From TrEMBL:
Domain GST C-terminal: start-end pairs: 90-220
GO cellular component: cytoplasm
Annotated keywords: Transferase
Species the sequence originates in: Halomonas stenophila
TM region positions: none
Protein's UniProt name: glutathione transferase
One Pfam assignment: GST_C
Length: 220
């Protein structure tokens, strides 16, 4: 089994960045990009579906092993490699990390990334304009979920207690993009703990290497 892993996917993807953060936090060597065996992997190509039956990214390659779905990838990286643990030993605390990982990867990703942030990054309105009606429709659920995270952060510096975990690795790229969006100022004014939390995440050495300005060249 090789000592390094390959993360297949574009670096601007929030989920790709979550996997990167886990590698960086644990000191796992990795390569990154949309190539497999030296050949570009076309999005939704037969080769892509052969690796991921639902045509999603990222995909983790570790020797002959292939793994999909970001929470599963992050849990595998934590268990299979040495380095600082990203999950608590205590069963209840670990279940809490799993719970927040699931909430973020499903509900928060859909509301915050798919229905809100992507409208600004890849606007689908006439002439490439942001569809303000789509933004307005997304805002109530974004506000509700940010409020949920704000409440959880009353209990510690991180989503589950005082230690960085996989849940924080899932949250960090989403919230980093949100804090860089001028249109989100109204949300952020109502969630001071969330803003402070995101700034703590940004200050971690691993985040400084991952949460960089995205290169969207060739994206569609």
């Amino acid at each position: 089994m090789t000592a390094s892993v390959q993360i297949v996917g574009p670096q601007f993807s929030t989920f790709v960045r979550s996997v990167q953060l886990c590698c960086e936090e644990k000191g796992i060597p990795y390569t990154l990009g949309a190539e497999v065996d030296g050949r570009p992997l076309g999005l939704h190509s037969p080769e892509h579906y052969a690796l991921h039956p639902f045509g999603k990214l990222p995909i983790l390659l570790h020797g002959e092993r292939r793994l999909i779905e970001t929470p599963s990838i992050c849990r595998y990286l934590d268990a299979a490699f040495e380095g600082p643990p990203l999950q608590p030993e205590d069963p209840w605390a670990r279940a809490q990390v799993d719970q927040w990982t699931g909430i973020l990867a499903l509900y928060v990703d859909q509301a915050l990334v798919r229905r809100y942030l992507l409208e600004f990054v890849f606007p689908k309105g006439e002439g490439g304009a942001v569809r303000q009606e789509a933004v307005a429709a997304a805002q109530p659920e974004v506000a509700r979920l940010l409020g949920l995270l704000e409440g959880q952060l009353a209990h510690g510096d991180y989503l589950v207690g005082e230690a960085f975990s996989i849940a924080d690795a899932i949250a960090a790229p989403m919230l980093d993009y949100l804090l860089g969006l001028p249109a989100a100022e109204a949300f952020l004014a109502e969630t001071p703990r969330l803003v402070a939390y995101t700034q703590r995440l940004r200050a971690r050495p691993a985040a400084a290497r991952v949460l960089v300005a995205p290169d969207l060249g060739g994206a569609s």
